[in-house]
Design goal:
With about 180 residues, the chain is mainly alpha-helical. Helix content is about 65%, strand content about 5%. The protein is built from nine helices and three strands; from the N terminus they run H-E-E-E-H-H-H-H-H-H-H-H. A three-stranded antiparallel β-sheet has the order 1-2-3. Helix 5 packs parallel to helix 8 (about 145-165) and helix 8 runs antiparallel to helix 9. About 25% of the residues are buried. The mean pLDDT is about 95.
Length: about 180
């Protein structure tokens, strides 16, 4: 099931990110298929960024932004949440994406009546998964959609704050909100 979910997500990200880009005000620097040069180099790629293959990018996305942060374990419980964590993790880092989920679960636990607060450590672990299971069970069929809205609200606020703190990021804000939220 996880492979069935992640393969189209990887394809969609690669299609959206496109080929080689080196925007002068993007702190991420040169990218190919959305993979930054820093990420490619840190994972053993030594060639020119313009030549990074789609297959290499797909492998990096699967390993670094799906399996390593354990978003696949979220997918079996809440596939839409896992999809959002994957996408947000690519753009902001998996720990930030997981932190959004942790914050949302803590804020939605009715004062710890439904399940205990979880530590905001940016890690998908047993306590986060137990809290997610409890949230989904107690809140019923609409729970995943509400949790997704909370995560996207936190993500949107972070994008606006990034643009406010660094005016050069205003060049990206519209696209972030258009393509990464909702």
């Amino acid at each position: 099931m996880h492979s069935d979910l992640i393969d189209p997500l990887i394809d969609a990200v690669i299609d959206r990110e496109g080929g080689f880009v080196d925007h002068p005000v993007d702190r991420g620097g040169a990218t190919r298929w959305g993979i930054t040069e820093a990420v490619a180099r840190a994972n053993g790629y030594t060639g020119a960024m313009q030549m990074l293959s789609r297959a290499t990018a797909a492998s990096l996305y699967r390993r670094l932004y799906w399996l390593k942060p354990a978003f696949d374990t979220v997918a079996s419980r809440a596939p839409k949440i896992a999809e959002e964590l994957f996408d947000t993790g690519i753009n902001m880092g998996p720990a930030v994406a997981t932190g959004f989920l942790q914050r949302a679960l803590n804020a939605l636990n009715r004062g710890a009546a439904d399940y205990p607060d979880i530590v905001l450590d940016g890690v998908v672990g047993p306590r986060l998964l137990a809290a997610l299971d409890a949230f989904l069970a107690r809140r019923g069929p609409g729970a995943e959609a509400v949790l997704l809205k909370a995560i996207e609200a936190l993500q949107g606020e972070r994008y606006v704050a990034l643009a406010e703190r660094r005016p050069a990021n205003e060049a990206f804000l519209y696209g972030w909100l258009a393509n990464r939220i909702g």
